[in-house]
Specification:
Length: about 190
């Protein structure tokens, strides 16, 4: 009989609700179902307010993480953009340096045409002022200790030209922008 009850539970068709003697067993079959549903009904129902609060907290945490990620992205993008701008400015100034050198040489020459020479000197001064406003500094350190981070030694001087290890002549000025050297100065250094 137990097998039939289980079978009837799984296949509830009208023709099978009779035992072999022809008696209905609806009451017996329904009793175990009630017994099975009774423990579920006795389980405490989840508090909808607590569930809503937990879900709200989860959404708040998610929103805060998304906001923090966006803030980090914005800061990273701003830093990258500023760095790219500075790299472009340094590259432009690097390409402009031969022009500055030529204007400096032209301004130092003697000429019969004094107005032309004055014009060249004014253009050279204006260009140097514009570079200075942009943060470009000249590396011109005669008489100071040689610094390989700022200068390239291309010649060796004699002890009569200065103290050992010091720059005795600047052959070509160097330039730096902020902490980065755009072009190293070419110098003559007294041998140690």
């Amino acid at each position: 009989m137990k097998k039939e009850k289980k079978r009837k539970k799984t296949m509830p068709q009208d023709s099978e609700r009779m035992n072999p003697e022809g008696e209905e067993i609806l009451e017996e079959a329904s009793a175990p179902e009630e017994a099975e549903t009774a423990p579920e009904a006795q389980a405490p129902e989840a508090d909808p307010l607590a569930e809503a609060r937990a879900q709200a907290e989860e959404y708040l945490n998610l929103a805060q993480r998304v906001q923090a990620d966006f803030d980090n992205f914005r800061k990273r993008t701003k830093a990258t953009r500023a760095e790219a701008y500075e790299d472009g400015a340094r590259e432009f100034i690097r390409q402009l340096l031969p022009v500055v050198d030529n204007l400096e040489r032209a301004a130092q020459q003697e000429s019969q045409d004094e107005s032309l020479l004055t014009g060249v000197r004014l253009v050279y001064k204006q260009l140097c002022d514009a570079m200075e406003k942009r943060g470009v500094e000249v590396i011109d350190r005669p008489g100071e200790k040689f610094d390989p981070a700022l200068e390239n030694a291309v010649m060796q001087g004699t002890p009569e030209e200065g103290e050992p290890g010091c720059v005795c002549a600047v052959l070509q000025k160097g330039y730096k922008m902020g902490d980065q050297v755009i072009r190293h100065a070419m110098v003559k250094v007294v041998a140690e």
